[in-house]
Amino acid sequence: MRAVRLHAVGEPLRAEDVGLPEPTGSQVRIRVAGCGVCHTDLHVVDGIQARVELPLTLGHEVAGWVDAVGPDADAAPPPGQAVVIHGAWGCGACRECAAGQEQRCDRSLAPGFQADGGYADAILVPPPRHLVTLRGLDPVRAAPLADAGITPYRAVRRAERWLRPGARVLVIGAGGLGQFALQYLRLLPAAGGELVVGVAELSTSRVERARALGADVGLVDASPDDWHDALGGPADVVLDFVGSDATLSLGAATGAPDGALVLVGEAGGSAAFGFDRVPIESWLTTVAWGALDDLRDVVRLAEDGAIGWEVEEVPLAEASAAHDRLRAGDVAGRLVLVP
Fold first, then answer.
1. Are residues 124 and 48 in the same domain?
2. Who has the most CB within 10 Å: 120, 126, 196, 283?
């Protein structure tokens, strides 16, 4: 089968012919329909992503069809069933896994990081609990839900205690993940329609798209004072989908006392923490992917037509070109590699 692999940090991706993996034990082989291209894939190539084992087939946003099952995969969906893959493959035995939070397992494996991922014709998935059945949703279109869809859902959930009617929210970065976040904010049953939502961007076209998705205001390269004026005060919640030094500084300077700054983006930035560095009694937290139940919720919203997103299909053989486009910011929604 075909696979696009990385052999060493900084090297070009290689398109190779590799053996079709055969499932053993409780493994399930998925014939890949599509695999989203994520900024984290670029971090893997650049060597700044933690816990990566090379050589490796990249790709963690994967959907497709059940193709073959191991002899012990009793609970696997039948062959031909469309599925999206939850990529946080925990050990299944620790406290985090028992709580349904496999993405926090310190012994977890993940496709495209420690295990071969979805830049290929097929992928092996360990126990079938990591598969979420699709009931009518095109698996090519569903692939981004495995990260771009689930991660902002998790971020909004973690900030929900602050998201009361009238709360001010600043979303930093309205790219592939930020666009989902705007929709989840508006879907909150108690407060969604009464939030004051702003989007900080460097792109006027993304600001326009954000307004169409529910943002009340969008500003390009604005200062904290500008944001206080635009939102009517400091932000009760800041969702940072970039994660650079500059955006974390903006978030800390824009936030309210007892507010929440949620770091989602992995641009490698950091924020100074201290009594005179962040708003008093504010909360700083991070988001790591999402739980299996989060993915089930997101798939349900997608199948109900409650959320929308843009997908551009790219042939698997053009993975390197897709990376170049993502680095250049030449992407409106999500690029999805199709074998």
1. yes
2. 120
